[in-house]
Structure formats: C-alpha cells, structure tokens
Amino acid sequence: MSILVVMEQRAGEWNRMSFETLAAAQQLAGELKTAAAAAVLGSGVDALATELAGKQLDKVHVVEHPLLAEYTPDAYSNALRQLLAHVQPDYVLFPHTYQVRDFLPKIATAMGKVAVSDVVGHKVDDDGLVLVRQLFQGKVNVDVRFAGDAPHFASLQAGAWRADQLAAGSAAVEKFAPSIEASAIRTKPGERFRESARAVDLSAAELIVAVGRGIKEADNIPLVQELADTIGAELAASRPICDAGWLPMERQVGSSGQTVGPKMYMAIGISGAIQHLVGMKGARTIVAINKDPNAPIFEVADYGIVGDLFQVVPALIEAFKKAR
Q1: Which of 66, 108, 142, 182 measures 20 to 30 Å from 275, CA to CA?
Q2: pTM recorded for the entire structure
C-alpha cells in the first residue's frame, strides 16, 4: 500500500494547497503504516523537486516534458496515467484546486475509477480508510469508502489539513519522462487568470474581527465594527454577509474570498462552514463567539464563547476599553 500526492505548480510557484495535501498524506501514511511519495509535473522543475526532497517522503517523482511547461488537461492526464502505471500507488491525492477539478475527472473516467472530491477529513478503522466529505453546503458530513482495485483518487479541500504540520525529512528524487505527442494536445493554454486589485488587503492584517449571519441584519454590523475599532482590527465577513451587500466583497474571507493568517481572528456569529474555514484556519489564534455550542467553528477555535453575540460583544468592547 502506498500514497502518492500530485503537487500543483504554475511557472515554478507552488500552489499553497499542495503542501496541505502533502501534510495529509504524511498523516495518512503514519496511520495506515505505509509510505507517502510526491510527484511534480512540468518542465525545468528541478528546484521544486529539491524543495520536496527535504520533506518526509519515500520518493519525489519529477515528471518532465516540454509539453508540460504550461498546463493542459490532455498533457497532464496523459503524463499522470503513465506515471501511475509506473509507480502503482494505492491512493492518489490532489489539492482541490480549479486545475485539479479540470483534469482529475478525465483521468478517473479513463481508468474506470471514481474520484472523491472535496474531502475535509478522514478516519481509519478495521476495514481501512474512510474519507469524509460534505454535502448540502456543509450541513451534512458523509463517510466514503473506496471499493474495487487501486488506484483510488481523492482531492482534499483547502484548510482541511494544515501545511505547518508538514514534517521535514530526506527523500530520493526520481525523474520520469512520459511519452507525449503534440498532436494529442487538443487545447492551447490561455492567459492566466488574475484577480483584480483589492482596496483592502486582509492578508496583511494582524488582527481581524469577522462577522457572520448571526448578526441578523445590516443595521447591527456597526456593533462589530466598534469592537474591531476598539482593538485596532480589520473588519471582515463570511460570504453571506458580502452576498447580501452588507459589507463589500473585498472584506470576504473564505474559499471565494481572501485567505488570511493574522495573529488573532475573532469569528462572531460565524457557524464555520468549510468554505469559510479554508480562508482563516491559518490564524495563530482563533476566537469564536456563537450561541450554538455545536457550531463547527468551535472545532478550530483556540478560545470559544458560547453565547448571544449581542450580549458578548458589548461586554468585550467595555472590557477592552477599560484595559486601555
């Protein structure tokens, strides 16, 4: 039994989610008592391979070809299928990125397999590995087991595992040269997507106070703004608040907003759907205020206050003002 992580890079720069997936693979390898390896696809990626070689892995596979210099689904799926035939891993893990969503179904279908997407957790029991994914916008968690012969494919949601838990080590580097014909590439790489400039850069904030649906209505947001002003924090929000137009989209934190890593992140009235957690899980200290004791946000919080935010927030404002 073995695990292979397919890393993602563009123009020599890693997608940060790759290292979260790598950390997950290390954890799984320990629990399943097996080995984890990593693969990087591209052209001229020796420097990236050297960086991977410093991680606790069994091996680093460098898949190089001129037609892999720019991502295309045909080239990537072709090269990966050849690598999988060579390595023969049991589990193949990917970061759940837009690029992976483009080519993973192609590989899985071509090999007659099923790919489990949006994985947010796992467990190991007497029957083996169980993956956890969410349904109905995070309201329901379901357990998924693989059936049939390997390889088994899964993509891991951002924020579900922490890259800072990645273990260092020493891994051998092995080069693999796939056979790819230019005639097999049916698409040409287009211009890369670039996000528009933001007036507010939450990623640079050291303190963030974020508000969610628990605030009930737009007229109540000034209460949370006062708390943010009192402690010198930036005001942020979950997606429903920005979708409703109560705060500008540039203040949204989450998978479709900004990713932040402040010294402290205070989540007020935020339940903690995975789409929000992926944007703030890297905070050094997380404080959650929610009246629901079973809210998922408490699973990642360092400090939690179960209570009505309309009672807790005014008390915090008064306490902070006195402390100054």
Answers
A1: 108
A2: 0.75
